[in-house]
């Protein structure tokens, strides 16, 4: 598998289609893993959905253990510690298919993500041998305890404390953790506390330790069947050998685990979006109004087409990132951290795509969608949490340009060199001479990259070292970067399909033509807002002309193309790209 070797490469270079992994390249083994997961979710979990959603934690734990017997909890764990050590693409397919399990997918994602990866990344040999094999089979179920009542997004502001006892054998933990997923049945927690009130540190804490109690189950807006409780720590004695990583280095454990967690949120929301789309396409084809199926009406067709294009972009980026993670040692946190920007993009874009899809799907259902007897009602309520999980979307938006700037300051990215070149000659070298059916769209994506760099440069000139305090600007820069990644991922996928003469190439080309143009409109809007904020009156008109020039693309009759996209979806009754 060929992958992009440089992190954040999509913003600073032209990527060849052969460098990215696409869903059309799933191996027979990967397809079998997807089928195994789908059969388990459909055959074992779906029939129990009402009991799961009513918060039957014993049933949820039982089903997780059955999933563990099939390898669906240990697919990502190294073979040396009882796992299957599958590639990232395979584990992504598991996450995507498990998303159809409703609230149980939250328990699965938490266990296989942020409750396990800290041990994989930072566990000692003894810790890995003791815990990972049991986590792989669900002999132990895991939970991640970071958030506190007074520290949500400010994770390092935690107040939980750890004090070494006089014998030097145990740390004594005190504090409370909030909204802990799987707390109703967890056997082991990854807990964060400050040693001597200062050194932020990660600990492996057995759930049966004296002094641990949990609060009642939280009553939530959605994911009602997911166990969510307070965790109370009162003089909990944790052996010193259960320190995870180094004392005072808990932030590395937390944040690198969250990189994987964010990617898993992206893959899970992709699966949920496909499920919600399926309900919409099916309903639109069987529901009649004015003696016609809903799917024959233009505005319904446009909704189905817009959902398809967003899902296609999300799917393309998710598996592109999976390919990147398979291009090195995914068990090395430093390697994974190279793709922190892409993981944040996957989380934000995936969660907002899901919210868009469930909202439009419910609208297509009309009044019926508001009724609990229809599955889209629960999907709608449960989708909302994904924009808060694993760092709010606002935090992740700040991380995207913030990480680029930090890496540029360390000499890891050519940001400043490119900014200097752009200042000297803004439009130089932009004619790449692309060929093929999507040459214009390729040119548009590369022009958008130039625009991103220009906006970044203007913001730095205006605010310098205080740019991170201008969150409105940082958020818009993040939006532009995400749109570029989404557009390019879908574009590269369609080009690769065309080169291979795949049957899906024509449909993918239609989607890319639509998405690129609508994406450019959004990019132009965000860039204009940045200009209004950072440019003085003397230069504003000239810069806005530059923005318009870099977001220019030939007009296209989008409505007929969207109708074709919708007709394909209705005929299939599901997302089929």
TrEMBL record:
It holds the Pfam family Acyl-CoA_dh_N. Residues 248-400 form the Acyl-CoA dehydrogenase/oxidase C-terminal domain. Keywords: FAD, Flavoprotein, Oxidoreductase. The keyword Iron does not apply. Belongs to the acyl-CoA dehydrogenase family. Its cofactor is FAD. Residues 27-139 form the Acyl-CoA dehydrogenase/oxidase N-terminal domain. This is Putative acyl-CoA dehydrogenase. GO terms for molecular function: acyl-CoA dehydrogenase activity; flavin adenine dinucleotide binding. It catalyses: a 2,3-saturated acyl-CoA + A = a 2,3-dehydroacyl-CoA + AH2. Residues 448-535 form the Acyl-CoA dehydrogenase-like C-terminal domain. PROSITE patterns: ACYL_COA_DH_1. It comes from Effusibacillus dendaii. The keyword Nucleus does not apply.
